[in-house]
Amino acid sequence: MSGANLLISGGTVVDPAAKREVRADVLIQDGRIRDIQPTIASSNGLRRMDAAGKLILPGFVDLHVHFRQPGREDKETVETGSQAAVRGGFVAACPMPNTSPVMDHRGAVEWVRQEGQRVGLIDVRPVGALTRGQQGAELTDFGELFDAGCVALSDDGKPLLNSLLMRRALEYARVFDRPVIQHAEDTCLSSGGVMHEGLVATTLGLRGAPAESETVIIARDLALAERTGGWLHVAHLSSARSVELIRQAKRRGVRVTCEVTPHHLSLTEEAVRGFNTLAKVNPPLRTEQDRLGLIEGLKDGTIDCIATDHAPHTAWEKDADFDSAPFGIAGLETALGVCATALIGPGHLTWSQLADRLAAGPARIAGLTDHGLAAGCPAHVAIVDPAAAWTVDPAAFASKAKRSPFTGQRLTGRVTTVIRHGLVVWDANA
Q1: Quick one: 313 and 396 in the same domain?
Q2: Which position among 156, 309, 356, 385 bears the catalytic label?
Q3: Domain enclosing residue 19, as ranges
Q4: Which residues of the chain have pLDDT under 70?
């Protein structure tokens, strides 16, 4: 794929790899970044895009999405998920394997990849199932799945509770130098829990899931990763204690990476008051202390990246009573605005740090090379208006999911243009 010749002028280049934020022009030719200079003269045959007052960031990568296809096309498809992704600034996304049929064999993985190529908006890089049928009893054929294009393996939505199988998974995945992604949840501790176990749950009369249901699995898996030398990636952290466990493990040299979602960085258990099913997620929203602990982990680099855990559901499912409603929200189209409002506005992160956590960090984990803002790299770019104030209206989402806990909220910071391989795949003003 190659794009037209394009000159992005007048914007501020935010390059986390080079740790620079400078006003510069960006020249794109034949789908690649050819030059970045303070001023580049325009010439015939060169389309000019004015980015004055805007930020030029590397295109975002989402390590954790659910596109529901095959099997639940009423919730989302690869096409609608890709449309939602580009609106959020993402040029690549990694769909989780809990589809129907499960992505536990080559055919299922290749179909999703080919569907992503047919749509052509983003790079769709599946995560294959860790165990057959995600049943937690027998490991999948790692070689087949990685050869088919999987970036990692996971039973996301279901934790791998068998310690021996988890050890073997880390050992086998080490051969391929790819991560095992764990949904960290001791389901015996969290059984029946529909929100965080605490004062709000008690007040509402809802059964809670304690933070320990996450931390005990993380502690076990860190011990196994340390023993095997395998690469553990922990999905959607939700508690401050989890961050501290991983921080200590990294200091010991354990090979572990992890992610956090925009909603865990911005919301707490208080969002559930009024039996708000839009705030029902797994792992649950926890305390303000946990939220601040997650932000601190993001700041000091303990948490490697931000992933949306985009989990779309139909309106009738989310509008059910709290116990019956499914876990999950649509997160792709609000990710940048939520992160900018919760992290940049209060001064927790710089734009360079946020670009690292949304783009460079997840690209490294997914094994996407040449992903950045340097001459010679593929032209994958997200242009952001940092001052744009907008109100979240799920009715305008490209995603099939039209329910969000951020409905009606005023956010600051919005993606205006997304370029992939030099082609404009999303333009808010088009």
Answers
A1: no
A2: 309
A3: 6-56+377-427
A4: 1-4
